[in-house]
């Protein structure tokens, strides 16, 4: 099952004016399934699979229960090259170089990111070092935290089942040198905000990347809880719930991002598609739900021009 998730995450790269890859799937759970095992098989993380199936028991979905697989994604804005990590989405995108005559592809993987008190930094970076079967040298901050919790750590953790880095690590060019893309010995936590700032991946996913990504590969770290994209005929919005700024724990309830985030994302798309029309009711519904599944916000009948987004809080009446 683990190996299949790598293949599930690879898609042909769409043309430059198309921003959407994949499609939402629906499957029936088997008796032995959990939402976490299904998510891993189909390449989605904990929060993604849980938010797409709010009425399904995480540990006992039940044989024959329909499970929604949120396997459609809007590509992040910006250059489609190297590695792009969207912290808010808890997802990594990789654009492998295509050889002459080959179809360009994009791969996407669920990740875990930093807790609020150990946030993952944003900006441009690159891979500076790759290590297989790494030792883990906990930084002083983690040693102190664990000592205060009564769970002291050694200064060095050797490779093996107790090493939280798993079998592969790739160091990012971020001041301090402590930020990594790495595997895990606790795959159930993938798709949660539980790390100390590093980017954690399923073991099979990071192994696949490790084998192909060279040192020096560009990495762009962004924070886009709301993405907007074009299918060629339809305008979609993908919204992800976020931790409130005043959250005291990474396990506090997530909330929908503000409407202004959607407006900012849509404004970028509408520069390319000025004839598009936005249905404000659909947009409000998508933002309220914020389940991570792309939703159409196009209005097919004559309606509010896209320029109305300049004031998203204006109430418009539209004759049907």
Describe the structure.
This protein is of the alpha+beta class and 320 residues long. It folds into two domains: 144 residues, L,D-transpeptidase catalytic domain-like, CATH 2.40.440; 85 residues, no CATH class. Helix content is 20%, strand content 23%. The chain contains seven helices and 18 strands. The strands form five sheets. It has a nine-stranded mixed sheet with strand order 1-8-7-6-15-10-11-12-14. A hairpin with a 4-residue loop joins β6 and β7. The radius of gyration is 20 Å and the shape is globular. It starts with a helix and ends in a 24-residue tail after the last strand. The C terminus is likely disordered.
Named at the architecture level, the CATH assignment of the largest domain is Beta Barrel
- The tally of strands reads 18
State the order of secondary-structure elements, H for helix, E for strand.
Answer: HEEEHHEEEEEEEHEEEEHEEEHHE
How far the N terminus sits from the C terminus, by CA atoms, comes to 49 Å
SSE blueprint:
Layout: H1 2-8, E1 10-12, E2 20-22, E3 25-28, H2 35-42, H3 46-52, E4 66-69, E5 72-74, E6 82-86, E7 91-95, E8 105-110, E9 113-114, E10 123-132, H4 140-148, E11 168-172, E12 180-182, E13 193-195, E14 199-200, H5 203-212, E15 218-222, E16 226-230, E17 235-239, H6 259-272, H7 280-289, E18 295-296
Parallel strand pairs: 6-15, 9-13, 12-14
Antiparallel strand pairs: 1-8, 2-5, 3-4, 6-7, 7-8, 10-11, 10-15, 11-12, 16-17, 17-18
Helix pairs in contact: 2-3
């Amino acid at each position: 099952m683990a190996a299949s998730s790598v293949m599930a995450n690879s898609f042909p790269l769409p043309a430059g004016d198309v921003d959407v890859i994949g499609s939402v799937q629906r499957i029936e759970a088997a008796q032995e399934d959990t939402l976490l095992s299904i998510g891993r098989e189909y390449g989605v993380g904990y929060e993604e699979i849980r938010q797409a199936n709010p009425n399904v028991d995480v540990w006992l979905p039940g044989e024959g229960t329909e499970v929604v697989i949120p396997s459609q994604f809007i590509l992040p804005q910006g250059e489609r090259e190297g590695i792009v990590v969207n912290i808010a989405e808890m997802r990594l995108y990789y654009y492998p170089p295509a050889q002459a005559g080959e179809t360009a592809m994009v791969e996407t993987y669920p990740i875990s990111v930093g807790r609020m008190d150990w946030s993952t930094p944003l900006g441009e970076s690159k891979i500076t070092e790759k290590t297989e079967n790494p030792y883990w040298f906990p930084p002083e901050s983690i040693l102190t935290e664990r000592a205060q919790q009564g769970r002291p750590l050694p200064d060095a953790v050797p490779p093996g089942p107790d090493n939280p880095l798993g079998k592969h690590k790739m160091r990012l060019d971020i001041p301090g040198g402590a930020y990594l893309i790495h595997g895990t010995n606790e795959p159930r936590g993938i798709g949660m905000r539980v790390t100390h700032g590093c980017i954690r991946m399923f073991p099979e996913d990071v192994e696949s990347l490790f084998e192909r990504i060279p040192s020096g590969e560009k990495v762009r770290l962004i924070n886009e809880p709301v993405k907007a994209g074009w299918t060629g005929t339809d305008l979609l919005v993908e919204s992800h719930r976020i931790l409130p700024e005043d959250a005291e724990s990474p396990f506090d309830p997530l909330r929908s991002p503000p409407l202004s985030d959607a407006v900012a994302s849509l404004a970028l798309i509408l520069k390319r598609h000025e004839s598009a029309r936005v249905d404000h009711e659909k947009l409000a519904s998508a933002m309220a739900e914020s389940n991570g599944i792309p939703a159409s916000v196009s209005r097919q009948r004559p309606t509010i021009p896209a320029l109305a987004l300049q004031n998203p809080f204006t109430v418009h009446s539209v004759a049907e």
